[in-house]
Amino acid sequence: MVPGDPVRAALGEGASSNPATVAAYEEKFGLNKSVPERFVVYLGNMLSGDLGTSITTGRPVADDLAKAVPATGEVAFYAIILSLAVAVVLGTLAAYRRGKATDQVVRVVSLVGLSIPTFWMAILAYNFFFLELGWVRGSGRLSPTITPPPRITGFYTVDFLLNGDSVGFFDAVSHLALPVFVLSLFTIALLTRFIRTSVLEVLDADYARAARAKGLTGPRVVFAYVLRGAALPILTMVGIAFGTLLSGTVLVEAVFAWPGLGTYAYNAAKGLDLLAVTGVGLIIGIIYLVINFVIDVLYGLLDPRVRLS
């Protein structure tokens, strides 16, 4: 239903006007078959790890995704770690000081963080921290003078450390700084508001009031009882936020020329690269399944009432 012809997009105006060339292309990629036939063929190939060939890059889609997913995963991983660390402090502090100046400031700041468009913040950060101040690197995952490390995990920071390359490690960290910072702002605001609400609910629970009645100090009640009681809903939101970071970084990756999943999906959609778009959708689905599975396992570790069978 998308306007445009993928054959014309792949061959160009000149070649697509030749019926023989079009017929040969459709025969090569199976586009002359019916949709049900193509679907069955695709499923069969997928089971063997073949997601087809991208018409945008000319390479197997599986190989492209093997490079794009770790690039996005590295940004998303550090962004969610930073976001969770900051949001737990801000959200818990706002809940503990509810109704006071600290609570009001945190709520206003988190509202501003949710309201600012991420792509706009990415442009501001790029211009200020890179072009004006020159504190960090601007585009891409590495500087042109740095050779990528031998692939072990796909995370450049980890692979450089495993290979003992401190120069490459700090260069990779410098390139990561701006994308992680921009993505963290929105996620921090989201998690802060949610953590505040979750902690407030637990603070009003009977066992929290009983702990305070026994004479336990406020910080001890928060760290020993409240945060553990609020951990399950917070964990669920963290999983959702992490999945969103992995699948929704298109605009940020475009600003920083980051060769990740978002950039790959955008280029594929722009070129009507159907197999590449399908591969991206498949990977995102797998990502959410894995995240939900991990969250379910963590539920059983955090809550003794949950029994895993």
Give the gist of this structure.
The protein is mainly alpha-helical and 309 residues long. The protein is 74% helix and 0% strand. It comes from Microbacterium wangchenii.
Which strand-content bin applies to the residues?
under 5%
The CATH topology of the largest domain comes to MetI-like fold
Described by its quaternary structure, the protein is single chain
The percentage helix is: over 70%
Low-confidence stretches: none
How many E strands?
A: 0
Number of helices: 14
Can you identify the CATH superfamily of the largest domain? MetI-like
From the alpha carbons, calculate the radius of gyration and give it in angstroms: 24 Å
Mean pLDDT: 83
- Tally of structural domains: 2
Secondary-structure element string:
HHHHHHHHHHHHHH
Distance between the terminal alpha carbons, to the nearest Å? 44 Å
Principal-axis shape equals elongated
CATH architecture of the largest domain: Orthogonal Bundle
Largest sheet: none
- Give the structural class: mainly alpha
CATH class of the largest domain: Mainly Alpha
Overview of this protein structure:
- The protein has about 300 residues and is mainly α.
- The chain folds into 2 domains: about 1-30, no CATH class; about 60-300, MetI-like fold (Orthogonal Bundle).
- About 75% of the residues lie in helices and about 0% in strands.
- The protein is built from 14 helices and no strands.
- It has helices at about 5-15, 20-30, 35-45, 60-95, 100-115, 120-130, 155-160, 165-205, 205-215, 220-230, 230-245, 250-255, 260-270, 275-300.
- Helix 4 (about 60-95) packs antiparallel against helix 5 and helix 8 crosses helix 11.
- It is found in: Cell membrane.
- Keywords: Cell membrane, Membrane, Transmembrane, Transmembrane helix, Transport.
- InterPro entries: MetI-like, MetI-like_sf.
